[in-house]
Write a structure and sequence with these properties.
Four copies of one chain form a homotetramer. The first copy, chain A, is α+β, with helices and mostly antiparallel strands and 381 residues long. Chain A contains eight helices and 20 strands. Chain A has one domain: Chorismate synthase, AroC fold, CATH 3.60.150. Chain A has helices spanning 38-48, 108-115, 131-151, 196-200, 209-224, 252-261, 282-285, 352-374; strands spanning 5-6, 11-15, 22-28, 32-35, 65-67, 71-72, 75-77, 81-86, 101-102, 158-166, 169-170, 231-238, 266-271, 289-290, 294-295, 303-304, 307-308, 313-319, 329-333, 338-341. In chain A, a hairpin with a 2-residue loop joins β6 and β7. β13 of chain A pairs antiparallel with β13 (266-271) of chain B, so a sheet runs across the interface.
């Protein structure tokens, strides 16, 4: 099945193997007349790129994006926007001996079961490097959102993600239910004013300085012990108007769940109070209305019945620890024999900071898709 | 945007408002020659139906399903299968005064923001009653899975869900990482042999008797206090072969996330060890291979890189407490004024037991869609 | 493959076998707030219905449509609109002996090759009776177009089809290139003022009285000789604004070609001057501009580069003669032996008049889909 | 609306403006393990390329294709196949003054109406140069068809198109109804043995030598008179098994109609006897069965009820004369004032020979999509 496209009104198709000639995306359905500069795409790609600091894989890819189509004189044409990132620094030799080896925690085995063959170089298309296309598409989606807000004279829609947890260390910001104007003061950071620059100011992209220090310790300890750590990325969307999303299968929660749980290494997604809501009573979880369609709390995380409520969207994505660790692991041969091996190559001890722009891209894409689709079925049609 | 269809190779389109003339679905893409009896659909609809016990809404709808097309002489034709459930017991009068009232925790407000108007009778299409169509589609999907296993002479693919948590009470079965043959003994119940009959034997559909007793207490307490409780449904798929699913956007995790996070009241989804994986190290989380493509543990919950591994699929869905509770709640008028009101009507104090067949239906549909799509791109094409 | 849906922003899914319990459609993506009465759907179904006059199959089905969902208080809700037509007068006995017989010119053989089995009663889903769902969907699409014109204060978009040819008799209206305001006078009829009532005034739905008389002779002669006749339906759309349609795969011509060449018995489609354009020079075929974006001629039939030009849309659909004729025909057994047989049952000697509302429905659906989709990518986004 | 993709099981997304940085396509859904060489793609691109002979536009683009992804060691991976053709010889200066001029017969005006802006260089994405992506996708589809035949040990599926008509000159091959084994002898050429090499042996790609000579005269005359000519491409598919295609909206005729009527300059499509069938009686048009599911004639052109019958597929596509001619034409300014202008640039006097590989590509793509989708719903599921 053709499964490399995402979206309905706005459709991103991504392509490319980790060590192939290039990766990229084609975004179709973008309206005409939207300002789009390659620099905006590049900025998010740079945040995703390996080698940004000492905790990350030392592959210096560069990941230079080119816009091949769909933009003329700085404005979109309404035609497909193709973005290409050609590969520069592929050391395929590192992986050659993996052609017959299935690493634990990797897709090597399942991919072979699915397709009968695979590109073993750098994990092929099962590599997290496939998110290059997702991030480029997300940057285009952000341009759509910016144009929408400008046209409608509303405040900008800002999508900010950060590292909320690494290993067992959790950042001490406000709980999702408190992420509402006027309730976010007095915490280690304020999700309603946080900027990407502030997030990027710390190597692990955690805006809680004390937590960050402990996260660093944990990552360095894991690294020294040739191990890896998982974590959680939290994302907040500010300025999202009420009324976005579809009510049945394509609820914002459903579409975001699709986009986020298809990210490499993602193991869970929750909205607002999330899993903790299971333990609550309705009288506590229900967010009372305040005058003017405001809310007294934000357990619902900005989505009611699949449609945005005007409160900040709040969601979490859990990522497992990176599977490739430089210590012996019990894998399998393609014949089903157990094979212990230490896999070398370039890998991060903790991938979660690099997941921040990827989560933002997924959220941006879902929202842009929703608003472009929503324009179809407004009540005043 | 047309958002009432789900699936790619197998597509379900659902329709119907809670108190409208009928609800139903059309399932397109079902292969020809598959045994399909209306009784199979009816059985799952009966499990979803309100009024099954004292903890549930006393609406006695009946929900009788008719197959209108696509089946001839007990076998599918390869043409669309339309299933219709006509409404019988709609007491619209109960809801008439809600036309101008937005209940907290409901989609009333967001729906109006989205569409400019809505059907206020019983929540219209925002009612959980829309899942009638999903459950019918899931039953058809199960027939597809049964036919697949029969044709391929493999063990049946069994999808079993149960209530894992109600309020703060958690059933004591094996952890997801232990849900593997040979590891599930010694617990309150065994997810690898559990049957739907066993699940249904307790009113709250929790197979851990001790936990069930405490859950009952909690539900009765909440009910007596005019309140409601949330919970978690866990689902296991047994007999799922390796190699199902797509590697990028349409990972099993992504498609399941889409289907499950679009269920009414769903607030989170996790696979295998899920959110707890964020706190782990790679050396712990990685599931070592055993001979013959078996695994020493199941942290990955049966999905690696979006594709099934042959280990049991394990996932959790968190549901918030039912929003409608028979006590005063602070809602809003359509003009934005706060309006406290006690909403009457028929509602469950805990919806989670009825979510069990709905989760099974969503999982069945995603798997049937995956296998029908997967036949396209096997390596031996 | 799920192939029973059509459209992108507006999606119609149809279902039903000729002699099954019911036929119908679900239309998803219709905006909220549009006036929709079942009578409008019924009116077009009545025009499609057999038994309207002596040239048509005497099946008195009635074809009573019910709207099951998506409409509340006379206005659409933005939710899926399900329309159901239950079967009343199915004489399955007439067809029972066809289970092992492949009729020439029918889909019996190819259907069995495709699906391995079929519903032989009345042709099952290969019967032209499947167009019930298409016509209902087309009527909904016309309501969308009416709402669009009303909201935009433009003239109504009128879709008028008629029988342009039966056998070798051709109606003498203006050539497509002349179907422009001010150029259609002096012909047997005027496509720019013709109404559906005028078209229906003649049994064969041909507005050229002289041609109609000769067509009647031809049909009666064919009927008396136990034979059938093909024909051509021409369709004109008036009031279609410029700028509708997509430029590449989803050109209006492509989408209309898809919708129209998927109609039962359709063998060809052409736009404007059509096949005759192949014999022309560019200097003749190019339609010169007049002031105010008007055109001196309409060889292009209202579509340039796949997008509407503001000139009337003009297209033709060729239908083959009805395959079932009450005389011996050389068919096949399912084992491949030649079998001569006279097939009885209820069939029209000339199906083309009943194709008129079906063509209108297909055109209406494509246009409504185009305008709902087009709102997404206007230059002012 | 995202309208730059085509297909369901196999999906081609194309991108690129005529004088932009590059054109190309991404093909998703191609099975793994299929032999695919860039040379095969290049071969068809070379046949589409301008500048092949004196009747064609003298743009020497080269059109060198690169496969960027989805192929490893000569075999497909089951991942998206991106094909890129970078632009080399773009003389944008030729077109600069067209930014405010709408040429008659072109999409300049309608494109502006649709999107509010456009890329005027070489027609932007409205240029027939967009078919580069279609041709590359078609070549990949041919690889799919070749793999299918090889795996099923059937004869190869051969798609052969040629120029059947230029201006008023028509090639004298057998009528569609005679394009059946044993009936094609005694004509100027035999569609059942014709090769692409034979088609390419004549500059105008017409295999009837006498007709070709007269076509050449007509083209040279038109060229000398600064004019252009239209024509018809006929396409035959040999070796197509019975049972391909879907029965309702996605009939082979519907999907082919979509693909072919979305080609630049296409004005009509017909199957088998096509428009001439409208003038026939059923007793003549019905193709009698012969033993073994063979047919006595091929009026149906290889498709019955939308599904292939095993007889050769026969279809015609009518193309209008090229709109750009080097003589004064009455266009419009963007303000609606008439503007007579002689547009210069590089254009063919007759585009039909270059349409031959484009038609083949469209047909190949529809067939590959059909067979990949059809594997889903075979009766033996």
């Amino acid at each position: 099945m053709a499964g490399n496209s995402f979206g309905k009104a706005l459709v991103a198709t991504t392509f490319g193997e980790s060590h192939g000639a290039a990766l990229g995306c084609v975004v179709d359905g973008c309206p005409a007349g939207i300002e789009l500069a390659v620099e905006h795409i590049q900025a998010q790609l740079d945040r995703r790129r390996p080698g940004q600091n000492r905790y990350q894989s030392q592959r210096h890819e560069g990941d230079r994006a080119r816009i091949l189509s769909g933009v003329y004189q700085g404005l979109t044409l309404g035609t497909p926007i193709a973005v290409l990132v050609e590969s520069a620094d592929a050391k395929s030799g590192d992986y050659k001996d993996l052609a017959d080896h299935y690493r634990p925690g990797h897709a090597d085995f399942t991919w072979d079961q699915r397709f009968g063959r695979r590109d073993p170089r750098g994990g092929g298309r099962a590599s997290a490097r496939e998110t290059v296309g997702r991030v480029a598409a997300g940057a285009i989606a952000e341009a759509v959102l910016a144009a929408w807000a400008k046209r409608n004279n509303t405040e900008p829609i800002q999508i900010i993600a950060w590292v909320q947890q690494v290993g067992e260390v959790v950042a001490q910001g406000p709980a999702p239910a408190q992420i509402l104007p006027g309730q976010t003061g007095g915490y280690a950071f304020d999700p309603l004013t946080l900027t990407r620059e502030q997030v990027d100011a710390s190597p692990l992209r955690c805006p809680d300085g004390q937590a960050h220090a402990r996260m660093q310790e944990q990552v360095e300890l894991a690294q020294s012990e040739r191990d890896s750590l998982g974590g959680v990325v939290r994302c907040v969307v500010r300025g999202l108007p009420a009324g976005w999303g579809e009510p049945v299968f394509d609820k914002l929660t459903g579409m975001l769940g699709h986009a986020l749980l298809s990210l490499p290494a993602a193991r869970g997604v929750q909205f607002g109070t999330g899993f903790a809501a299971a333990g609550m009573r309705g009288s506590v979880h229900n967010d009372a209305f305040l005058p003017g369609f405001h809310f007294a709390s934000n357990h619902h995380g900005g989505v009611l019945g699949g449609i945005s409520s005007g409160a900040p969207l709040v969601l979490d994505v859990a990522f497992k620890p990176v599977a490739t660790i430089p210590q012996p692991q019990q894998g399998s041969t393609s014949q089903g024999a157990v094979a212990e091996r230490t896999v070398t190559g370039r890998h991060d001890p903790c991938v979660v900071p690099r997941a921040v722009p990827i989560v933002e891209a997924a959220v941006a894409f879902v929202l842009a898709d929703a608003v472009l689709g929503a324009s179809l079925v407004k009540g005043d049609a």
